C-alpha cells in the first residue's frame, strides 16, 4: 500500500489488516429485504467482459399427427422466437476511512467501523433490486415487472362500491382473483406453461394469511389457496409490488421461477477494488455489472393489478 497519506508503519499494518477483515465481512452481508436474487434466478454466464447480452423470447408452436409408414409429410414442431439485445451496465459505489479514523482506531486498539462498507454494498444491492424488478428506462435495461410482453390485467371490479380492492371484497372474491391469476397461465398456453410461484404485496399477503376462509372455518384464505394449488411451491410477499401496477396500483404475479423462463443477468458480481488515496482518506471502490431481467417465455408469467 503506498503511504501517500503518511501513516506510520504500525498504522499501515493496522489498516491493512482491518481492511482485509472488513472486505471479507462485506462479501458475507445479506439483506433479506432485498429479494431479487431469491425470487429471480441469477445468471453469471455472460462473464465480466460482456457489454451486451443477446437473447430470444420464445413461443412454442407446432403439432404432431399419426403418420403412415414411410411418410414424408411430417408436421414441423418448432420454437419461434424474436431476438433482443440487452446492454450491460456497471453499478458503482465506494466507502473509505480518513487518516484520522485510522490513527484513532489504531491508537485505541479498536476495529474500524464496518457500517461504511456495509452501506456501500447495500447501495449496490438496492440498485440491483430496482433494476431486476423495474429495469432502467434511461439505460434500456429490462426489468421483470416492466416487461410489456407479460400478460397483465386488472382484477374484476365487483367489490363493495364496484371496487377492485381486496379490502372491499369477500374471501370468495379474493380466492377467485388468485385462481384466475394462476389458471390463466395454464389456459392461455394450453398447459405448456404452469407457474410455481405467487408473489403478493406484503399488505395483501398478511391479509390472506390472517383472514379466515369463512366464518365457519379456522382455515385462512392463504391456507385454502395452498391446498387448492399444490404446484405453487412458493407463496411470498414483496414490498415492490405495493406500487408495481399501472398508476402505482398494488399488483400480484404468478410465474415459473425457473432459469429456463427468466434470469437476472449479473455478468460480474459484487467486487471490491484496492484502496486508493483520495484527499485525506483511503477510498475503496465497489462495483458490479448488470444486464437486467431477461424473460425468455413471457407467457410463463401473469400480472394482476388493482388488488
Could you name the key traits of this structure?
307 residues, alpha+beta, Major capsid protein gp5 fold, hypothetical protein PF0899 fold, five-stranded mixed β-sheet, 7 helices, 14 strands, 26% strand, elongated
Please give a structural write-up.
It is a single chain. This protein is of the alpha+beta class. Helix content is 29%, strand content 26%. It has helices at residues 9-28, 36-39, 99-108, 115-134, 171-188, 202-210, 221-228; strands spanning 42-43, 52-61, 78-87, 89-98, 152-154, 197-200, 234-237, 251-255, 262-265, 268-272, 276-278, 281-290, 292-295, 301-305. The strands form 4 sheets. It has a 5-stranded mixed β-sheet with strand order 5-14-8-6-7. Strands 4, 10, 11 and 12 form a 4-stranded antiparallel β-sheet that branches. A hairpin with a 2-residue loop joins strand 11 (276-278) and strand 12. The longest helix is centred in the N-terminal third of the chain and has 20 residues, at 9-28. Mean pLDDT is 86; it is low at 61-65.
In short:
The protein has helices at residues 9-28, 36-39, 99-108, 115-134, 171-188, 202-210, 221-228; strands spanning 42-43, 52-61, 78-87, 89-98, 152-154, 197-200, 234-237, 251-255, 262-265, 268-272, 276-278, 281-290, 292-295, 301-305.
Amino acid at each position: 500500500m503506498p503511504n501517500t497519506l503518511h501513516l506510520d508503519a504500525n498504522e499501515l499494518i493496522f489498516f491493512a489488516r482491518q481492511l482485509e477483515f472488513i472486505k471479507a465481512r462485506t462479501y458475507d452481508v445479506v439483506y433479506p429485504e432485498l429479494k431479487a436474487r431469491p425470487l429471480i434466478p441469477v445468471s453469471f454466464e455472460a462473464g465480466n467482459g460482456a457489454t451486451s447480452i443477446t437473447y430470444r423470447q420464445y413461443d412454442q408452436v407446432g403439432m404432431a399427427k399419426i403418420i403412415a409408414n414411410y411418410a414424408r409429410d411430417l408436421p414441423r414442431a418448432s420454437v419461434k422466437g424474436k431476438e433482443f439485445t440487452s446492454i450491460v451496465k456497471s453499478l458503482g459505489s465506494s466507502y473509505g476511512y480518513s487518516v484520522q479514523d485510522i490513527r484513532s482506531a489504531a491508537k485505541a486498539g479498536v476495529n474500524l467501523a464496518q457500517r461504511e462498507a456495509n452501506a456501500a454494498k447495500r447501495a449496490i444491492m438496492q440498485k440491483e433490486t430496482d433494476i431486476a424488478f423495474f429495469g432502467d428506462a434511461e439505460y434500456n435495461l429490462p426489468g421483470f415487472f416492466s416487461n410489456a410482453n407479460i400478460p397483465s390485467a386488472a382484477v374484476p371490479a365487483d367489490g363493495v362500491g364496484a371496487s377492485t380492492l381486496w379490502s372491499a371484497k369477500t374471501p370468495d372474491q379474493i380466492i377467485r382473483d388468485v385462481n384466475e391469476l394462476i389458471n390463466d397461465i395454464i389456459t392461455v398456453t394450453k398447459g405448456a406453461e404452469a407457474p410455481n410461484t405467487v408473489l403478493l404485496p406484503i399488505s395483501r399477503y398478511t391479509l390472506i394469511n390472517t383472514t379466515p376462509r369463512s366464518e365457519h372455518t379456522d382455515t385462512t384464505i392463504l391456507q385454502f389457496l395452498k391446498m387448492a394449488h399444490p404446484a405453487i411451491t412458493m407463496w411470498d410477499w414483496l414490498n415492490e409490488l405495493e406500487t408495481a401496477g399501472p398508476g402505482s396500483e398494488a399488483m400480484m404475479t404468478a410465474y415459473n421461477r425457473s432459469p429456463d423462463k427468466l434470469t437476472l443477468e449479473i455478468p460480474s458480481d459484487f467486487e471490491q477494488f484496492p484502496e486508493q488515496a483520495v484527499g485525506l482518506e483511503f477510498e475503496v471502490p465497489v462495483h458490479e455489472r448488470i444486464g437486467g431481467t431477461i424473460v425468455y417465455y413471457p407467457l410463463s408469467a401473469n400480472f394482476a393489478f388493482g388488488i
